[in-house]
Amino acid sequence: MAYGLARRELRPRVPLRPGEGEKHHLTSLEGLATLSLDALSSVAYGPEAIVLALVAAGTGALAATLPITLAITFLLAALVVSYGQVIAVHPDGGGAYAVAKKDLGPTASLLAAASLVVDYVLTVCVSLTAGADALTSAFPALAHDKLLVCLVGLALLTAVNLRGVAESARVLMLPTVLFIVAILGVIVVGLLRTHPAAVVGAAQPVHATETLGILLILKAFSSGCSALTGVEAIANAVPTFRTPRVKRAQCTELMLGALLGLMLIGLAVLIRRDHVAPRGDVTVLAQLTAGAYGDGWAYYATNLLVTLVLGLAANTSFGGLPVLMSLLARDHRLPHLFGLRAERPVYRYGVLALALLAAVLLVAADADTHRLIPLFAIGVFIGFTLSQVGLVRHWAAQKPVGWKRRALINGTGAVLTTLAGIILLTTKFLEGAWVVVIAVPLLMLLFDRIQRYYTAVGEELQLGRVPDPPDRRAGSLVIVPLGEVSKLARHAITAALALGDEVVAVAVHADPDRTRILEESWERWNPGVRLDIIDSPHRSLVQPIVDYVQRAAGNGRQIAVLIPEVEPRHRRYEILQNQRGLLLATVLRARTDVVVCMLPYRLSV
């Protein structure tokens, strides 16, 4: 006791490196901002997709918007409950992939992984192009630069995510909150008004080309299911949450389901009450916004906010796909570098791969949303079905308390998502969904071939087995390529003498006078090491040394080549140094089995 204070035990504290500690992981609200924008922003095109499908039967068919939306919301509730269970059973993330691998076997897990990769890449592309469409609607002058707008947005998202998920969450928090408030405001204010405050867009004649039958309703339902993409992203990225990770991720999933369901139903009620039909140059959401807020500053502010959030919705993929790719790398189904993390908790190679794939697809589709939409949502419904079928098998095998009720929930969700996926595939096959049908099996084949390669490498290296005793060779030889007698030569010879039993210096010269000067300098220095000078009439440096090393290695001795290399103090001077050492090391590694060592000599200038 001292001055009335209790004595505390002093313990050494090791400072955390950047990226370590809970502050670089997500809270529930940060997770909502980072991982849920894809699903939340779908209210900008999900209800409109239903309207566009139903209007083929005339404006009277738009009354079916609300029942179809209720059916989609019921499916959403089943998915939210199901993925809450996925989070609890698989806290390491992976979502449908983890479930399929554990409960459905390797083939199903490959299918889940391939479908999720396709969906994540398409999520980035569709979100960016939809945001660009909204932006060019407000600023028509940008219409010819839509691809550039998308690529700039992609570059910004990539840069933000390379700094870490937590940092991107803080960037996205304010736009997410404003977007939710704006959409809920449209619903509340719109319902309080007896008639729309303003009407925007040019009226278009509606000609009924179909009857409101079961096929049209199913088509509208499948189109509206695009609003469900992104629901699985939270389950795929559980490791990015703060502890307790499972509870935080489940809480985020519930918040997402409640907000998305409320917004979808509210907008559907307004569409039905106000008989909102497609109009020229504006979206359905823009019409509802004008009906609630009028056509003043609130209307423009909301539309610009929707544009921003649609662009930022691509961040969902940056939070989910790199984690999934790290799991695939851990299972030897992707190159192991995708499992590496930077000092911050970021799978940078996964982020960069996603950015590259999205950029290629954006260029191929010329940033045309209508060319990308038919590919959208099919992959994620494959993941939905696999994850829920896998959980049914999990509950049946484990039989915990209440397993029948849980299996019934997942089984119902599996049936609904299977039907929705079949409808999506059949109604959009000729519109471009056939690309997904080809891409998914190709990705499965790629994952399988990579796994086979790693298995073959493991067999050859005898990983997991005790190897034979090491070979005992007669002495070792260290070869040091040098150009002249200098302090660099002293630095290299000193290091070589510490490494091997025998050291020999090798120089290559084409000028007899320079050869004689080098021999005289070596005799005066007399370092106790033999000097072999190779004559090179063609003034080649690399090949004579490679031939020398190959001859020395022919007798079975252990050979090491120590290559001294000058490193300037400032990086701007690196271009002034020759790269012969690096070239020599590259050729030696390619043509010989000797040990190649680079010895840096750091300059003070």
Automatic annotation (TrEMBL):
Spans traversing the lipid bilayer: 44-63, 70-90, 110-135, 147-166, 172-192, 254-271, 297-325, 346-365, 371-395, 407-426, 432-447
Top-level taxonomic group: Bacteria
Keyword Flavoprotein: no
InterPro entries the record matches: AA/rel_permease1, APC_K+_Transporter
Major localization listed first in the record, in broad terms: membrane
A molecular function (GO) term: transmembrane transporter activity
An example Gene Ontology CC term for this record: membrane
Subcellular localization, as worded in the UniProt entry: Membrane
Record keywords: Membrane, Transmembrane, Transmembrane helix
Membrane topology of the entry: Multi-pass membrane protein
Full protein name: Amino acid permease
